Amino acid sequence: MNKRNRPSRQRRERLGKQGHRGHHEMKMDDSVYQLRRQVIRIIYKVNDLLADHGLDALPRIQVRIVDGGCGTAGFARMGRNAVWIPKSTIGKDYLYRVVLHELLHAVLATEHDLNCKLMHTHVQPDLTDAEATRIFLRYFGAEVDARAEDIAEHLSHTGPNPSYV
Ligand SMILES: [Zn+2]
Most buried one in 52, 78, 103, 141, CB count within 10 A? Predict the structure, then answer.
């Protein structure tokens, strides 16, 4: 018997509400565990960053690796400390930015903001990990100095129709 083959009704409802559109959680075998570790490692790094700024660590985050479905880079349960990362996002250069984005949904229930490069509905190709980190920390109330490079990036972003992925 393997109960994981059949998600509980509660879980199916929860996933349905998230609009997961065909994603399913992968069984936690060794390979999935390795993928999940990459996300956990980012969460540890985030906790170090928060500590560096005198802020509390994140609550315990439920991390699930999912497979299949559409091209969504990640999703979260608003304010419920749970994130889902598709297998296809692991190993991408934007994994770090996606995890920060989903953590803001999951921990602070931060909504999308088309004027924010990190909380935009789409991964912003010109958002660097460094700027994503600064934006993330500001949402948590950290005082992070805006750097000249942020302003330059912002100005370069005001043109018509930047290409999103
Ligand atoms: Zn989002």
Answer: 103
- Integer Cα distance of 10 and 45 in angstroms: 32
Give the burial class of 15: count Cβ atoms within 10 A of its Cβ; 0-12 exposed, 13-18 middle, 19 or more buried: buried
Distance 3 CA to ligand 1 centre (A): 30
Distance 162 CA to ligand 1 centre (A): 18
Report which DSSP code applies to 163. Answer: P
Cα of 29 from ligand 1 centre, angstroms: 27
Q: How far is the CA of 1 from the centre of ligand 1 (A)?
A: 36
Lowest mean pLDDT among 79-93, 113-127, 150-164: 150-164
Could you state, in order of their start, the residue ranges of all structural domains in the chain?
3-164
DSSP string computed for 19-73: T-TT-EEPP--HHHHHHHHHHHHHHHHHHHHHHHTT-PPPPP-EEEEEESSSS--
Average pLDDT value over all residues in the chain: 81
Query: pLDDT digit string (tens) for 15-24?
Result: 434 445 567 7
